Each structure stands twice: as C-alpha cells, then as structure tokens.
Amino acid sequence: MRILIDMNLSPRWVDVFVRHNIEAVHWSSVGRAYASDIEIMAYAKANNYAVFTHDLDFSAILAINHYQKPSVIQIRVGDIVNRKDVVSSLELENDIKEIYLYSLDTFGRRKDDEYLDSLKHHIRQLSEWYLMYPECRQLPTKGKIYRRVIVESHIIIYRITERIEVLRIFHSASSNQKIRSARTVNIFFEN
After folding, report:
1. Strand runs (DSSP E) across 22-153, as ranges?
2. Where in the chain is the domain with CATH 3.30.2310.20?
3. What is the pLDDT of residues 93-114, one digit of tens each?
4. CATH match of 86-184 with 3.40.50.300
C-alpha cells in the first residue's frame, strides 16, 4: 500500500506510516500547497496512492464521479491542527509593496495580481501549516523557529513563537547576509 497524505494533515504522519512499513509521502513534498482536491486525486490515481485525509470532499469526489481509484482513507477527529495567529512586520508590508510595483511594471496587472494572491495565500495558510515548511538554513536555531516558504522566485521568512510572525519576503537570489537580517525584525502591536 502507498499513502498520499493530504495537506490538511501534518507531514509527521509520514513517519507513523513508515514505522509500520507502509510507504507514505506528504502532498507538500510532491505538489503545490494550494492544489485542488481534483489535482491531488489525479496524482494519487496516476501514481497508485491511497489518499489519507481529514477532508470530506475526497469521498464526495469519488462518489459523484463513480471513480474506482484512488482509495480514500478518511480520518475524523476533532480539531487536528494547532492553529496560531499570523502577524506580520512592517518590513513585510514594505516588501510586498516593492514586489507589487516591480511585478506590475515588469509583468502587467493580471500576472502581478496572481503572484501577490499566491504570496498572500501562502502567508494565510501559515496559521495551520507553519510546521510543514523547513527550517531557514540561514537562520538555524535549536528549536527550528525560523522557517521559510519558497513561492516561485521569493522566500517568505517567518518565526514560530506563540504566534506566527511573518518577518520578510526576499528574492531567492538574496544574499545569506540579507536573509539573516530577518532575525532582527520585531513585531509591534497597536493597543
């Protein structure tokens, strides 16, 4: 049996299956984080995986379309995600403005809007998926609190505390020194 673990479940499920000699892969390692359920189903079918999910939609897709494959294993428990509030720095807001202006000038309004929507989508998803992304290698810590999300040609840097602090967005060609500067970014709140 081969298991494809859906995005709504932790990548830590891979280890659970592997310990029981079941081949498993998390969707984040093979596909786009914001892929549709249909896209995930097609990948699972083409690669002979069963989908392991918390999402009711997969069973509905199978039933409505009379599909025989892929198999769906649905786990139903309470709140499976340790959600955290996502806050952003002033520097991040400036980074987004710079990306917007550059993309608008270089690629036009439609492409610019699509790209910014993708960046913002990834930032919003961090409230649930903050543990999914790898440690930022330029900012190593024992607790792996600095993480990075790669979105096309940019890297979103965030810090895991009692909340998710989205610090900066850098171009992927940025120097290590520039990326390390994210460590000094502070988050301020208005009361």
Report:
1. 23-26, 50-53, 72-74, 86-88, 146-151
2. 86-184
3. 999 999 999 988 888 888 888 8
4. no
